[in-house]
Amino acid sequence: MYLLYTLIIFISDQWLTEEVFFYKDGRDKDFDLWYQLLGFLSLTIYLTASLRVYKKYKGLSYATLSFADSVLFKWAERFLTAFVLLLGIRLLFFILNPEWAEFGRKFWYYLSFSGLFYFISINGYNNNIRSATSFRILEEPIHQDTSALISEHEGPAEQIPDLEKRKEQISLLMTEQKLYEDPLLTITIVADRLGTHSKKVSQIINLGFGMNFNDYINTYRIESVIQKIDAGEISSQTIMGLAYDAGFNSKSTFNRAFKRLKNMTPKEYVDKKAKK
C-alpha cells in the first residue's frame, strides 16, 4: 500500500503536474482529509479480512481438533479487539474533530492510540511463543472438506441414512478404545478408524449429538474425570492429574469445559462431593 502511495506521488510530481505537489511546503499530506479517509478505509479492509480469516480458523479448529483451545491464539483475538477499538476511536474523531492538523485539540486521540499500542505490545510479549502443538496438525488431509466442516448448516439428518449406526460406532470408539484420552486427537484420526472421511464424521457428530467435535470429545473427558472423582481417586491424585489422564492438555481448557458442562468449577464439584 505504501509503495502504491509513493508511486502515485512520483507520477504526479514528475509527469502530471510537473511540480512538487505532495511536499511543496515541506510537509507530508498526512493531515489532509482525503489522506485520513483513505487510511481509515485501508485499515477497515485489513481488519475485515483479518476477522474473516480468524473466524474461519476458529471454526475449523473446533470442527477438527480436540485441543482447539490451545491453538486459538488468544493474543491474536485481543489484538483484533484493540484494532476494532482503534478504528472506533478514529471514526469518533472524524465526527467530533475533523481538523487533523490541530495536535492540541487531539491530544486524547494520541493518548488513546498510545494506550492501545502498549496493550498490543504487552500482549505480544506475554504470549508464549513456544507451542507444544505442531502446526502440521492443521495440514492433515482434511482441507478438501473445510467448507463443509465449518458451515453452520450441514443438511438434514436424512442425508445420512446410517446415522444411528455411525453414532454407535463413534460412541464405541470413545467408551471402549477411549480415543478421547489422546490429547492430540483430531477428527481425521476418528474418520480413519471408521473407514470414512472427516466431513461425514463432522456431520454425524453435529446432527447426531448436537455439538461440534471439540465439545463432543471434551464431554467424554469431563465424564471420565467425574467418574474417577466419584470413585475416590481424588484422594491419591490431583484434579489436574485426572484431567491430564483424560486427555486435557491445559488447566484453563479443563476448567472452561467443566464449567460449561456442569455449571460449576472442578473444585466446587469436589467440595460438593466431600460434603456428602
From TrEMBL:
Signal peptide: none annotated. Residues 169-272 form the HTH araC/xylS-type domain. Keywords: DNA-binding, Membrane, Transcription, Transcription regulation, Transmembrane, Transmembrane helix. PROSITE patterns: HTH_ARAC_FAMILY_1, HTH_ARAC_FAMILY_2. Pfam families: HTH_18. One of its GO terms (molecular function) is DNA-binding transcription factor activity. SMART domains: HTH_ARAC. SUPFAM superfamilies: Homeodomain-like. The chain crosses the membrane at residues 33-54, 75-95, 107-126. This is HTH araC/xylS-type domain-containing protein. It comes from Sediminibacterium sp. KACHI17.
